UniProtKB/TrEMBL annotation:
Gene giving rise to this polypeptide: cotSA
Domain Glycosyl transferase family: residue ranges: 183-354
Keyword Transferase (UniProt): yes
MF terms in GO: glycosyltransferase activity
Annotated TM spans: none
PANTHER family reported in the protein's UniProt record: BLL5144 PROTEIN, GLYCOSYLTRANSFERASE
Domain Glycosyltransferase subfamily 4-like N-terminal: 22-171
Cross-referenced InterPro entries: Glyco_trans_1 (IPR001296), Glyco_trans_4-like_N (IPR028098)
Protein name, per record: Spore coat protein SA
Domain of life per record: Bacteria
EC number: 2.4.-.-
Organism: Caproiciproducens galactitolivorans
UniProt keyword annotations, A-Z: Capsid protein, Glycosyltransferase, Transferase, Virion
Length: 398
């Protein structure tokens, strides 16, 4: 039987920086942390939607919308020294009908697959169900980032519970000045800072966030709402900046020029964390009830921010046990009332911060990478034990 301590080569099939994509950033962060493990070697096979200049982590890349490239990629993986292929799954980053080109690769790859699922829909279309079910069937382990998704995987997709592993979304660690020092640095002393960050798209519901701020400023004119991040590249390519422009128009209509600021750029991780560290309240007015994971919400929880959110699946789990407040979907009044409650009860806000920070520490990337490394080793050990058991069965049969 092979030693558990054998150095494993883990390859990640994913988007990767400089492609601007949340999953690309996620994979880069995880790879960076796993590199610190003595018994692991990591590399990336990048899914590309254009021409990028990748760093040395990338073994090779291939075009997202070329089906033949998936077959060739499988051949290269099979001919390599890769021990595990980790598939970062999101329907939109693979070609075909709901990303079904990925299945052509999965059918041909002879290396064991571990799949990390970034979207798990509780009520999928038939094609969505087919794609995810087949990927999970061909995976040795299936990683989900929220406990509430485990039941969905079993009931909606028929995934064997013994395959499912829950590992939270990772959060980077930065040593930054405290909130009040950052406010002083930016001349924001005495202001209540609320923020939302991430790639901007209509599904984020930011119009309701702005309308909520319009209500809040009637009682608390010192409030400042930062909307941090550029328009999602796919949205920008299809629709230009029409959504952002509609948000800016709404700010003018409500006379909120002194209370809402846009930072229109692709944020570095340190810029994201500085924005969170600066904030008194973090808001996600998202519209999709079925959203199983949110990297932005994970970051906010990881840094102990008090969160006001609509009750999508991931938010319900993250904000349980008094770690934030849930407001109704598409309801600016409900959002505004939650914000006002937190502003007017600083002792309640402080209590929530403490609970969220305690919970969030378990999501720092060092802890998350440890859990992935354990999953890799356990999966290899299980494979060795199955092989040994099969060998013994054959000897007895002889």
């Amino acid at each position: 039987m092979e030693s558990k301590e054998k150095r494993l080569h883990i390859a990640f099939l994913s988007t990767y920086p400089p492609r601007e994509c949340g999953i690309a950033t996620f994979t880069q962060d995880l790879v960076r942390e796993l590199k610190k493990k003595d018994n692991l070697k990591t590399s990336v096979i990048a899914i590309s939607d254009g021409k990028y200049s990748y760093d040395g982590d990338v073994l090779f890349d291939f075009p997202q919308q070329n089906c033949t490239s998936y077959l060739k990629a499988a051949e290269r993986i099979n001919a390599s020294d890769i021990d595990f292929l980790v598939v970062e799954h999101e329907y939109g980053i693979y070609g075909g009908n709901w990303g079904d080109y990925l299945l052509e690769l999965a059918k041909r790859v002879k290396k064991p697959i571990i799949s990390t699922l970034h979207t798990i829909l509780p009520d999928p279309s038939e094609k969505q169900r087919e794609v995810l079910r087949e990927l999970c069937r061909r995976s040795k382990k299936v990683v989900t980032m929220a406990s509430n998704s485990c039941r969905i995987l079993e009931e909606a997709y028929g995934v064997d519970s013994s395959k499912i592993v829950m590992i939270p979304h990772g959060v980077p660690s930065f040593d930054l000045p405290p909130r009040e020092a950052l406010k002083k640095e930016l001349h924001l002393e005495g202001r209540t800072v609320i923020s939302t960050f991430g790639l901007i798209s209509p599904g984020k519901g930011l119009e309701y966030g702005i309308e909520a701020i319009a209500q809040v400023v009637q009682k608390h004119p010192d409030v400042l709402y930062f909307i941090l991040g550029q328009t999602h590249p796919v949205v920008r390519k299809q629709y230009g900046e029409s959504y952002r422009e509609s948000l800016e128009k709404k700010v003018r209509e409500f006379g909120l020029e002194n209370n809402v600021r846009f930072v229109n750029k692709y944020l570095t991780k340190e810029e994201i964390v500085r924005g969170l560290q600066l904030s008194d309240i973090y808001m996600t007015p998202y519209l999709n009830r079925d959203q199983a994971v949110s990297g932005t919400l994970a970051y906010a929880a990881g840094y102990g921010r008090v969160i006001v959110s609509t009750p999508y699946l991931y938010a319900e789990e993250m904000l349980a046990d008094g770690r934030g407040l849930l407001a109704d979907f598409k309801d600016s009044r409900s959002l505004g009332e939650a914000i006002n409650l937190l502003i007017e009860h600083p002792e309640k806000r402080k209590e929530m911060e403490a609970k969220t920070l305690c919970f969030g520490k378990t999501m720092r990337w060092d802890a998350v990478a440890d859990r992935y490394a354990t999953t890799f080793r356990q999966t290899r050990q299980e494979a060795c034990e199955r092989s040994e058991a099969e060998h013994e069965r054959l000897k007895i049969a002889e």
